[in-house]
Model the fold of this input.
Amino acid sequence: MTKQSKNSEVKAGILLFCVLCSVFSVIGGCGYSTRSLISNEFKTIYIQPVINKVDVTQEASAGDRYRIYKPLLETDITKSVINKFLQDGNLKPQDEQYADLILKGELVDFRRDPLRYSDNDEVLEYRINLVVNISLLDKQKQLVWKEDGFTGATTYFTSGTQAKTEDTAINDAVSDLARRIVERTVEYW
Done:
């Protein structure tokens, strides 16, 4: 072998090594991680039962004729938020006296808004909105963040192949709200 061919092999080897290192660096750094930036400081959370502040005694106006309410919805929201925290794994739900954080919430509105009508003015599609005011406190009861008008939503068709029942749509909206609350808590501060 000549000196020139050895230099070419060494350069090719170095080039291959650099390419492989780059590839492994990219592959190793591209994975999505659900680890939270707050997990080092906070490990546990108490989810206070959601309080129902929906005023069902308010008289519905003509423009508000789609306003509805499902009894015990606040309980469903609380259970769903706890389950989403358990699934996420960044903060472990705990009793209040042992928790690093306290999540408080109140259900302030529950709406069913029409989105699409048929030719004879029947509603074909609705949007369900669940609106809560939520706040996160640390164990010294200091406010970490607060969000008023925080919303979970879903849409549903009343007929056709994509139709679902209103109860199923409400459950989907509850799940969406819980997912958003957990994301807001562990990913954005």
